[in-house]
Write a structure and sequence with these properties.
three-stranded antiparallel β-sheet, about 5% strand, 2 domains, hpI Integrase, Chain A, mainly alpha, globular
Length: about 375
């Protein structure tokens, strides 16, 4: 039986190092970069990156330019002429092009990457970034965040003492509550939470003082965000360690004990901290939660417990806003949130948070302004 190739359709063999870049196919060059990534990129991500790179090559061909001989202004003009492409997608094009030229520099021995020149890589001034943004970033206010934390802590006490629930109902509510808590407390991406294995959570030697009932009302709630004793170690492209704050520490520990996940002897490769179902069966063979289920869990909990519209991304945004409010620098936010270095994501988050705060002030002012109309 003929062995089937495992290569992606349209994928080229790696060119040999030392071959001059001018003699290398532009798509083979890009594949070299893709295949050198560790850990390997998902096949779907590779397809997206190839699509973006090929559109850039097509534009060069239309302007009769060679990819080995272009100037930063050529890349800037390409980005500026991406009609109907929003700013975040334009920035993604720029990042993909920059990474392709990293491989070109490696192959050809040149030192300057044209896609990273000052004419392009300035998030404050360049006209190519002047495109419509995605839908406005949403947050919970500081007061809503603090109220949500109090509600989560109260709900945990209720579930610990509950005797009028079935095992399945109590398990589901415990899981859903802890999902909302962990997303708000650590800012994990949805995909990171879905894939989270119990082995990624470990205890450290940090001493943690229990929170008193009144501490949730301290000025600006700083006590809530002291480091707890649990650490979440994330792998992959956004590899980092995330400290669980003290208010979520006991909640996560409680869930691990309740679900039996504190026993390392019971772990298997497919184990997840937040599985999609309590019992694996032929009808529900997957332990891993899918994105649609996660979105429903967060939305349902927000409406039922807080009468608030919540999404996984809104909880992550709120965590990031909390870092800003507590005085973290942009590089520190970049590291904690797992943003790609130099992608201006932390700067955009800060700008979105400040704009959101200003919009809330405008709304509040309009609601409190006395009417000028006569009775």
């Amino acid at each position: 039986m003929k062995k089937r190739s495992t290569r992606e359709e349209g994928q080229f063999d790696l060119p040999l190092l030392g071959v001059k870049a001018a003699d290398i196919s532009a798509e083979a060059l890009f594949d070299t970069w893709l295949q050198h990534q560790r850990p390997p990129m998902a096949a779907s991500t590779q397809r997206v990156y190839r699509t973006l790179w090929r559109r850039f090559l097509q534009a060069l061909h239309e302007h009769q330019k060679q990819y080995t001989q272009i100037q930063p202004t050529d890349i800037r003009d390409f980005l500026s002429n991406l009609d109907d492409v929003r700013r975040p997608q334009r920035e993604r094009y720029q990042q993909v092009i920059a990474r392709a030229y990293e491989e070109l520099c490696r192959q050809d021995g040149r030192s300057e990457n044209p896609a990273l020149a000052p004419a392009i890589n300035d998030p404050f001034k360049e006209s190519w970034r002047q495109a419509p943004d995605n839908q406005a970033t949403q947050f919970l206010s500081v007061e809503q965040c603090r109220a949500t934390i109090k509600s989560l802590c109260h709900r945990r006490r209720v579930l610990e003492l509950a005797t009028d629930m079935t095992v399945a109902t109590r398990w589901r509510e415990y899981r859903d509550m802890t999902i909302v808590a962990v997303m708000l407390a650590t800012g994990l991406r949805p995909v990171e939470l879905e894939h989270l294995h119990p082995s990624a959570i470990r205890a450290t030697q940090v001493g943690v003082e229990p929170l008193s009932d009144g501490q949730a009302d301290e000025d600006e709630g700083m006590a809530l965000w002291r480091d707890g004793s649990l650490l979440i170690s994330l792998s992959g492209v956004a590899k980092r360690d995330v400290r669980v704050p003290v208010w979520c520490d006991e909640m996560l520990r409680s869930w691990l004990i309740f679900s039996g996940l504190q026993d390392a002897g019971a772990w298997v490769k497919e184990s997840r901290v937040f599985p999609g179902s309590r019992q694996i069966s032929a009808a529900r063979p997957q332990a891993q939660m899918n994105p649609a289920t996660l979105a429903r869990i967060v939305s349902k909990w927000g409406i039922k417990q807080m009468d608030l519209l919540m999404t996984p991304q809104r909880l992550r945004n709120t965590f990031g806003a909390g870092l800003i409010e507590r005085g973290f620098s942009l590089p520190e936010i970049e590291e904690v949130m797992g943003y790609a270095p130099g992608a201006a994501s932390a700067w955009r988050l800060q700008a979105a948070w400040l704009a959101w705060l200003q919009a809330q002030k405008v709304v509040a002012t309009s609601l409190t302004r006395p009417s000028t109309q006569s009775d």
